[in-house]
Amino acid sequence: MAHDDDFESFVLGIEPGLRRALTGNLAPEAVADALAEAFAYAWEHRERVMAMENPTGYLFRVAQSKARTRRHGWLPWPADAQLPEIEPVLPSALRELSPQQAHAVWLVHACGWSYAETAVALDTSASTVGTHVARALAHLRDRLGAVSHG
Amino acid sequence: MGDVEQQLRQMADHRAAQVQPYEPPRAVVVALPVWRRSRALAAMAACFVVLAVAGGWAGWSALEDDGRATGVTPTTGAAPTTGVAPTTANLATTSAPPTTTAPVACTRTGSTARQQGAGTLSTPPRPSVLANVQVQASHCVDEVSFAFLFGTPDWTVEYQPGPFSNNPKGDAVRVAGRAFLVVRMTHAAGADLTAANPQRVYTGPLAIRPDGPSGVAEAVQTEDFEAQIVWVLGLDSQRDFSVETRGGRLVVVIQAVAARARSAMTCISSADHVGVTVPNGWFVELSDGFRCRQFGPGPFEVTRVGDDVVPPVLLVPRSTSWSGRRPDSSLRSIGGVATTIEGRRTMIYTGEYGVSLYPSGSQFVAYEIEWPDGILALSAVGLGGAVPDATRVGLDAIAASARYVP
Question: ipTM score here?
Fold first, then answer.
């Protein structure tokens, strides 16, 4: 049985990445609740979850399921508009993506997850993640009028 | 402003900073296993904890004992048979049109008889939820794929004569085509009805009319009722078909007519004013939003799993002016110049990604074609290395064949 200290270390280790990931399609006020749900589940099943190769991706799915927004797309936040370094059209372009594409490009690009980690989180294959990301990027670049491919 | 990737990272930084970090309430956590003996006690615990931790620890009552909703191991799709590699000439050395008229060897499978099968849904009665519908075509087959969450449903596919009606409304539904394949999926729904707030998951069109090189004239949903979904596929003629389950997808594979396999396959996007010739054996996506914009040597949604996955080739018109195009020497180098069959100038860039979503060492090839309204950009990436030769040859062919469609 995992010791309490071990579980606390486990939570502190993966919390930042999970919190960042959940901001993609949850409202600001819902992220904290989703985190609490995910870690409550993790405690309940801590032996199995802590032994996982990618517990963050798994708990991302748990949080999505508990939040009942698993397949919803990217959610704009009011504060996004306050960022001077963000193209004004980017939020609307993200909103136009399919839920799968939005999840994939957010986890891979915004959160730095690998294809394999994202595949676990989205319950799909790494190759499908690649396809979703490629499509999402093509759309975003198109909308932003980006020229650079590199 | 930075590139798309950089902007996404900045947005995530900003968002994550707005949310209070979660801190495990140790005393509560230790007590949790005792309380979780029953859902009623768990609900009481949730109320208590919400009060005690001031909102940071809510919703235990929603926990499920078996974790069924999230306990599914990611599945991988079966490797499809990929088409014959294209045999086109190098764009950089010639402006001749690609040699896409060579015969393609099509393996013929399927029949016109009624077919049915059991799905992979493991925990009935929870229905499969339709997530996406996609139409794509190659020289040999048309494919209509239905992507599902929670496993694939039971299915029956058969030819039926019209007319068709919408169930349960009863309104007449017109479907383009001369022969009609009816795809009936049971234990399936368009919305996740087990959610507290059921919402439609598949939000795409309920009638898809590919205007590309497809034998599918139209695909129309005629029913999503009482855990049954029905789509009618209108075809140009009655042709052999087979049904495959690939991961979470049910794919209806319809044999192309023989003549199409021996002729060049052209894809025209009227909206983009672009027409290209699809390399022999390659697939082209005809679904909304990506119509004639994505090409690949195999079906896109179900590509081979592993490091050798070949992402599709992307074709995107952009409003950027051709004049003044200069490669960014820190990221890319000129891989060559060429002309299309219309004599349009083309700049070819090659390079390697720095920090990006792709694995370290991933290289890209990008074509920028002088276009009346800007440039036509065409690109592909090699995951973890160079763009595969077969993809590069196909890329050359597509670029060379690009022509403006008024």
Answer: 0.90
